[in-house]
Each structure stands twice: as C-alpha cells, then as structure tokens.
Amino acid sequence: MANPIAQSTEAFLATLDGTVREAAEETVGSNSKRSAGVEFTLTEEINLAKAIKQIASVDGFSREERSALGFLMIMAGIPHRMQQEVLDFDVTDVRPEHVAELFPHASRKAAYVLSGATTVAAFDGLSEEEELEARELGVRLGLSAPLIDELVDNALRMGLAMNTGNRAKVELLEAQRLLLISGV
User: pLDDT under 50 in the chain at which residues?
Assistant: First the structure.
C-alpha cells in the first residue's frame, strides 16, 4: 500500500519548476543541520512537517499547534508555497506506521521526528490521544521504551514552555533533548 505522506510530497514536488525546487533544496539544506547532528533533505523536511501535523491533529489541529508547525517550517527554510502544501495536507488516513516508513529506524533522525511531533502537539497541552499516538510512533520508529518516555516527557514540557514564552526553561529542555537524541 502506498504511503500517503510520501505519495503527496512526491506529487507536489513533481509540480515544481526545476529552478524553484533547486532553490528550495538549497535553502532547506543550509537550514537543516540540527545541533544533534541530524540533517534533513527538502523531501524529508516536508515529510517531517506532515508527520508533525499527523500527531498534532489526533485531537484536532489547534491554532497553537498550527502556529508552532508554521514556525518550525520557517526555521527549516521551507518556502511559503511548500508550507501551504503541508497545512493543506489531509492527515485523516495517515497513521504512525506511515510516518515510521519514512525515516531510518532506531536513529537520531527517528528520535528527532518523535520529539518534534510531540513538542508541537504539546503546544496546547498533550492530550491522552496525542500521547498514545506519539508513543506508538516511537515504537514504530524502533526507539526503546525508556527513550520514548524521556522524549515524550521532554517534548511535553518543552511545548508548554515554548507556548508560554519561558525562554530559560526552553533552553534547558533543548539541551536535555539534544543529549537524548545524541545518545541514539
């Protein structure tokens, strides 16, 4: 069965003019190096954003979650047109297994995906449904149960700290997150 995230991303990118796509790949490439030593291609960044939207949308996609996702896409250098593709993407039939198919299992990238998705979902508080979906994603990404627990706990606290603008707490939690991801 085709992966709805990968399928939609590939179809969208195929509609772009070659120079537009090249420019987007260059911009994303220069912004995608994460401090945990994780790099994402343009395709992976778009897939990551759709994965984040899937987890955050489990209980409805709130204004806070939408804003957080938008900010992350801006920080990644994703052009506006591609951001809109993500925001318009229908996650109704997307499941954690679809997300897990897109990223290497038991990897830093997998840990980053779980952390990012859970952090955005936590911007308006992490509902029980979102937490269960995030934990299932962690399992499907091949992460250990203790790491999933630590990443989900960190993401919950980070999402809330970001939403309230507590910069000192965000910096502390980001340092903890980097340690968790670097240990994978």
Answer: none
